[in-house]
């Protein structure tokens, strides 16, 4: 874990690490209402996926630079993704709609709630923001996070009715070592079963 602690009034930790992969899938989409409220057609369809791999994390005096390889909707995952640097300040007073958030998330989000403007609403594991679209209509963007500060979902709601315009949800959140280690266990377990079955057949045949 990239376990850097911020020396401030409260201590917050960046709990994501290099080589971690994240995939999010579009699970809900009301295209007519999305276009009516937000004013344009999105670059995704229902069932589309977006992929991100953390390639590097560099600590600076005021925060981090997170280098990611990024595959947008409709991109071929067999090709090299886009490389982007995502700056992230280390204090809640500098919060700026980051992809990831610092941990412990309850304390961090509570501090963001105290320090940011009234357009933000915070719970123990989510943050939402009221946004004025170019159409003049308001909508709400809500992000929900897991314990490590990784987004579980991002949802756009119509402001007055809370009707879902679009929702993207996590399809995979895995630490690379853990993911491959579990895969290795599954292969090894299958091999053990096959070897045991062969031994039982051999023992059984010798008893005849």
Can you walk through the features of this model?
Residues 2-8 and 173-208 have low confidence and may be disordered. The chain has helices spanning 31-38, 105-115, 176-206; strands at 21-29, 49-59, 63-71, 82-89, 120-122, 126-132, 138-145, 151-158, 164-174. The protein has a nine-stranded antiparallel β-sheet. With 208 residues, it is α+β, with helices and mostly antiparallel strands. The chain contains three helices and nine strands; from the N terminus they run E-H-E-E-E-H-E-E-E-E-E-H. It folds into two domains: 21-174, no CATH class; 176-208. The longest helix is centred in the last third of the chain and has 31 residues, at 176-206.
Give the SSE order as H and E letters.
Answer: EHEEEHEEEEEH
Low-pLDDT stretches are 2-8, 173-208
Mean pLDDT: 83
**Total of DSSP H or I helical runs spanning 4+ residues:** 3
Mind sketching the topology for me?
Elements: E1 21-29, H1 31-38, E2 49-59, E3 63-71, E4 82-89, H2 105-115, E5 120-122, E6 126-132, E7 138-145, E8 151-158, E9 164-174, H3 176-206
Antiparallel strand pairs: 1-2, 1-9, 2-3, 3-4, 5-6, 6-7, 7-8, 8-9
